[in-house]
Automatic annotation (TrEMBL):
Designated name of the protein: Uncharacterized protein
Taxonomic source organism: marine sediment metagenome
């Protein structure tokens, strides 16, 4: 599974995925009684866009291409599985969840724990917070510093209170 960013301003699945992707996952993780929830791309497109704000007149909240590409990605990453059925114009994929939401979060946790040692000491710097209480705080920056001519960019991850 590949996770390139975590948006810690969001909650739940929104930390890892975009809004339409969260709706896609929830649709196949829903309780469907005795049967396993399944859907093709068209059904996912319809269901997801019921809950998303349109981007404009005749412009759904999530494009058909976004739904198709996300379905393929979820299958490649082992979150979903699929079966192919013959249909007009070729074969169509019918997706179903391969793992539960709890199993997904276990994978995310394992991935984060695995990647933490890769953050080397030279990528962590401590800088004072620039405010009237600066002596009480430290800012820990976890990122590569990038040079842009005269400018330097760093990404601040955490500000902590000194004890």
């Amino acid at each position: 599974m590949e996770i390139t960013t975590l948006d810690l301003t969001q909650d739940g699945l929104g930390i890892v995925f975009r809004d339409y992707q969260v709706l896609m996952l929830k649709y196949l993780w829903r309780d469907a009684g005795d049967s396993r929830p399944e859907a093709n791309n068209n059904k996912l497109f319809t269901e997801v866009n019921k809950d998303l704000e349109p981007k404009g007149v005749n412009r759904p909240g999530a494009s058909r291409a976004s739904i198709i590409n996300t379905g393929k990605r979820f299958a490649e990453e082992g979150i979903w599985d699929f079966r192919e059925v013959p249909a007009k114009g070729g074969h169509h994929r019918i997706y179903h969840a391969k793992i539960t939401e709890a199993e997904f979060w276990k994978r995310v946790t394992d991935l984060v724990v695995e990647k933490l040692p890769e953050i080397s000491v030279n990528k962590i710097g401590i800088h004072s917070v620039d405010d009237e209480d600066a002596e009480h705080y430290e800012e820990i920056t976890i990122a590569d510093t990038k040079e842009y001519g005269r400018w330097t960019q760093t990404v601040t991850a955490i500000t902590i209170l000194k004890e």
